[in-house]
Amino acid sequence: MDALLDHLEESIEHARGHVADALGEGRIIDATDAQVTRALTLAAELQRLTDAVLVAATGEVSRRSNQTDREMRLTSRMGCHYVSELVQRLTLCSASTAARLQRAAKPTMARVSLAGTALPGTLPALHTAMLEGVVGIDGALAVAGPLGQVTQRVPHESVLAADDVLASVARGEGPDGAPAPPADLLKIQAQTWAIYLDQDGAEPREEKALRVRGVTLGRERDGVVPISGNLMVDVAKQFEAICDAVTSPRVGHERGVTFRPRDEVSDETDADGSEFRADTRTPAQKRHDALATALSVAASSALLPTIGGAAPTLVVTVRQEDLTEGRGWAHIGTEPVSLQAAMHAGCADVIQRVATDPGGRIVRLGTEERVFNRRQRRAIAVRDGGCVIPGCGVPAAWCEIHHVIEHAHGGPTHTDNGVLLCWYHHRHLANHGWQIRMRNGIPEVKPPPWAERVPRFRPTTTSPTRLLAALPRRT
């Protein structure tokens, strides 16, 4: 062990000088492609060897800190409460990295027999691959995670066989002769082995998932409601598919729109004169908007169970004078929301008008009506194709219909006054600077100043029929 420590100290001092000389003051920009890629390869191999030392040492720290007598524990003797704290202090790593080191050490660390002799860990071939610098901490966790879940349910000999094969795969010496895979691909192979070894494991896992599934809504605070819980895998994947369908960026070349990262957005256009825009939403915000879209589509599908003989209906209350004057608050149940939320619901949902006198007495009760009926929606979908904001790409089935002239301001419920907008652009239309007008029954959209140097109204559609009609006729 002393020889290893001496070697590590010498290597660190030797490497420190070379690293500073080669990379200081941005010298790497003068390196060739071959030198840069070779530097990545060699540094990664060195890091994998370093990972082997880190994992082994963390495992031994854990073993020496697992004493019944607290005062005899290594962590206590070093003035730390637990292993993670000691690892963080010695390595200057984060708590998450310390936890990963502990997880990687558990299946690879040596065990001690009753006679006090060292025994191999539960995955000895993986441990050997780490000592060779073939597998780092990412690869170790990729293998140890799936195999660790089945070690209690399958014969140990079967786990050792999978361990041997996966170590060979990591070296590029697997049965299929494929080159050494990255950690993510190694994890897929480890998961495949775990499934193969544990044919009966799916049912217990399914039963556990059914027990812990659930979604919890917290209390409203500052205009948002926290959500937490666990989704079944099929439900989560369905939600991911909806997110991909609703939020994937699409470039409309026929409309001259190009998406850019948010830090590249300016008030200019490309050299070829095409406009550009960026979606500034975070991934979490996009998933929220996709969920909102899915809920809106489900509520309007007429396929959900009824409540008291009626479809699930969002009840939004607002004073008529506040809605007309554009000030004040609306309410969803007892929770206050902005007037923008009320106007959005007024466009997208079923409306029933209830008039009260100043004392609160109901003086007039209107009938429920959907703002745009099915025939109107189909006609508008044929005309617009999808969300009319250029570059959005959300299809018609996922869109809501927006009154160009607000319903509260006397806008008619007519195809000449309705356009398709996705939930996100419908809810935030006033905030993003996009303007919409109708001209001879055709929607025209004007972008905000950041999207076009000289903004102007243009007809917009993704309807194949209208796009085809716009092409020049062949003689």
From TrEMBL:
Pfam families associated with the record: DUF222 (PF02720)
Highest taxon above the source species: Bacteria
Domain spans labelled HNH nuclease: 375-427
Cross-referenced Gene3D superfamilies: 1.10.30.50
Biased composition range(s): Basic and acidic residues: 274-284
CDD domains, sorted: HNHc
Region ranges (Disordered): 261-284
Listed InterPro entries: DUF222, HNH_nuc
Protein name: DUF222 domain-containing protein
